[in-house]
Design a protein that fits this description.
10 helices, alpha+beta, globular, single chain, 10 strands, 3-stranded antiparallel beta sheet, 39% helix
Amino acid sequence: MPTTPPTDNGATMTQAPTPTADTVRQLVRTLLKNGPETALGPDVRPASEGAAGVGPATWWVGTRHVLRLAPDRAAAVRQRRELRLRDLVHPHVPVAMPASVAHGEWAPGLPYTLDTKVPGGSAKQHDVSALGEADLAGLLTGLREVPVRQAEALGVPRTAPRSLEALRRAAGSAVERLAEADEFDPARLHQFTGPAAVQLAAQPGSAVLVHHALTADHLVVSADGRVRGVLGWADAVVGDPAEDIAGLARAVGSPAAVRAATLAGYGARPCLRGLWLARCDSVVHLAEALTGRSTAPLPALRDRLRHAWEAILLERVTELREDDDTGAH
């Protein structure tokens, strides 16, 4: 394991130094000895802080690697857990995941990981094709196959399903604020009634490993629309699979998300639950940003709202079959 580089200002265990290009370059030089990217000194640059899941401690290294520095203790726990989780998940999913080529500590008690960059663009840059939807179906299927006990043994937390009724009420207030700003027609939410929210409650015993951060930035999509990789596994939980369906709805559109979930064996109930999680979240998050309670970028929030509210045939179904209660076949 490489030696931890010296830190500026004699940083203590409780306060991390601010990573600089020199700090990163010094660390990377020890990790990529004799590599082509170090011939003239490694090319390092901060990743965009506007991207989801990216902070000031994430750096591009040349064209083939990404360096992530845990900035605090909470991030350190999540990063160490993520490395172990990726090893557990990898055999089950058909898409690529980042692989750590080196890891250690960049400051006392704060780990780093140097990961390979998964080639491709994001779901913002490329639309997902029909074959890409099959890739997403494989992802959802694989997540369901990961042994829950093994994930929890790694420290992956278990979370309770969210209340759709509580979220529906929050969305009802949010759409009124969006209407005042001429951002959204509140009548569109009227089709989601209280009884529907109750009917779409999560079913007992349905918890699986959930990525929990399937954003457009975390989906690596090639120019032909195939989903080649999935990033950002630090927020994974054991919980409601509809949360990942919702994430896909916000990232690539509700029709593609529901088709992928259906291909993965999920029935109407979890698909509709994911749809309404996505729709309610999208109006709540945009309203929070417009009223100054969130600093999330408005263009990204408007994209998520537009994707989540794309019409699908399934939402016209008023009666759910009993065999859809399990959510999987």
